[in-house]
Amino acid sequence: MPLETWERTRQVNLDGTFYIVQEVAVQMTNQVPQGGSLIAISSISGLLGGAQQCHYGPTKAAITNLMQNCAVALGKHGIRANSILPGTIATDINKEDLKDNTKRDYMINRTLLGRLGSKSYPPLYHENPQGRR
């Protein structure tokens, strides 16, 4: 893998998440009343290795860990921090891979639900006051 691929993936996934979380956390601690919900998108690839994801998986694992640390550090300000770890979701990026039944089955078998993910809005649950219970 070219070093540029590693660096670009880290910059977009991890550094980008860090910068956004940092700015939003400052706003949430300065507002009256303090508090809010930070939600980052990680990936099941942050938990399970992938032969073609040596650059991607580590950044997603780091996002999950970042949010765990934010939850501990920011909880005293009424700020919740969560990460969502979706499995494979059909997109333009992977549509050719999903046409291959062997690859598709591999992706599906990596998930606990045994299916591809959907383009739904699980972050809304965490953002909703009912998600605080």
From TrEMBL:
<dbReference type="InterPro" id="IPR036291">
    <property type="entry name" value="NAD(P)-bd_dom_sf"/>
</dbReference>
<dbReference type="Pfam" id="PF13561">
    <property type="entry name" value="adh_short_C2"/>
</dbReference>
<dbReference type="GO" id="GO:0016616">
    <property type="term" value="F:oxidoreductase activity, acting on the CH-OH group of donors, NAD or NADP as acceptor"/>
</dbReference>
<dbReference type="GO" id="GO:0048038">
    <property type="term" value="F:quinone binding"/>
</dbReference>
<dbReference type="InterPro" id="IPR002347">
    <property type="entry name" value="SDR_fam"/>
</dbReference>
<protein>
    <submittedName>
        <fullName>Uncharacterized protein</fullName>
    </submittedName>
</protein>
<keyword id="KW-0560">Oxidoreductase</keyword>
<dbReference type="GO" id="GO:0006633">
    <property type="term" value="P:fatty acid biosynthetic process"/>
</dbReference>
<comment type="similarity">
    <text>Belongs to the short-chain dehydrogenases/reductases (SDR) family.</text>
</comment>
